[in-house]
Amino acid sequence: MSTLGRRLATPALFVVLAALVALSFVISLTFGSVDYSRTEVWQVVAAHLSGGKGPDQAIDSVVWELRAPRGLLAIIVGAGLALAGVAMQTLVRNPLADPYLLGVSSGASVGATAVITLGVFSSFGLYSLSVGALLGALGATAAVYAITVAQGGLTPLRLILTGVVLSSAFSALASFLVFKGPDARAAQGVMFWMLGSVAGGQWNKLLLPALVVLLAFVVLMFLANSLDALAAGPDTAAALGVNVAVLRQVLFFIQALLVGAMVAVAGGIGFVGLVIPHLARMLVGSLHRRLLPIAMVSGSLFLLWVDVIARISAPPQEIPLGVVTGVLGAPLFLLLMGRGRYKFGSAS
């Protein structure tokens, strides 16, 4: 497809994918421990959109208070992880990088594990787990940044090595907290959280992650041309007038903010930030002005259906989302890489 054709196709593709996300969201409301018909679900959705409530109070409570915020959280987290994946792969110029490479997720795991096993931050009530995970993520971000800068700057190699080492250290600390925890059931809770879930989605928990995703998207779109230059190489970017050091710092903190916020509300969900950017590049190329919006809606669509699969695969229990993304993501990633239709950092 020509460059002009791609530019014309990208808005249409975005609209199609966004429409699929909206349709999939309504369909996802029919699935759960009790299945409802699309007619019953649509009656609830239409009633709330018009300012009322559904005709059946029991169905209304399940669909609107439990399943709807859960589905919206999956949409938000999928978009956030996909954007974080694009930012990370551009930052380190490595197509194998994923949002969890720098240890932010492992730091969040320490905070969340401390909440589950030791009861810290209990004064925050329902928000204690999210607060603990977010503070852990911020602590990990600060540690990676400080160590990398102290060793000479935010170069891709230093970031990767520092992130990998600290990620192992944070994971070991989280495991130690589980081992020392007084309640054996806490270990199961920690494991489920580390593998990710949007089951705790509530209306009052959606605003913060949604704002983070929106802010990150706007900033990344504003920097799209600079990101294209950086993906081609730091020397090329510098020759085009890009301040590479500042751009790397901005990318580092954007992806850290995205990962911290998403992990805080949904736990560690793998493969989304690795696979979706590659899929988006296959569809529209590597220019970030096209890549970012397509990756965002593709991530939303992917994680929304992952959550549906997690709900219906082993009733009455739910499978952690990380298990489903691993089963689906690994063969999908290998399939995409086997096709070889694009080169990282180019428009083709």
Automatic annotation (TrEMBL):
The UniProt record lists the keyword Transmembrane: yes
Entry keywords, A to Z: Cell membrane, Membrane, Transmembrane, Transmembrane helix, Transport
Membrane topology label: Multi-pass membrane protein
Pfam families the record matches: FecCD
Entries under CDD domains matching the protein: TM_ABC_iron-siderophores_like (cd06550)
Subcellular location field: Cell membrane
Alphabetized InterPro entries for the sequence: ABC_BtuC-like, ABC_transptr_permease_BtuC
Transmembrane stretches, start-end: 12-34, 71-88, 100-121, 127-147, 159-179, 185-203, 210-232, 252-279, 291-313, 319-338
The keyword Lipid metabolism is assigned to this record: no
Family assignment from sequence similarity: Belongs to the binding-protein-dependent transport system permease family. FecCD subfamily.
Descriptive protein name: Iron complex transport system permease protein
Organism lineage: Bacteria, Bacillati, Actinomycetota, Actinomycetes, Mycobacteriales
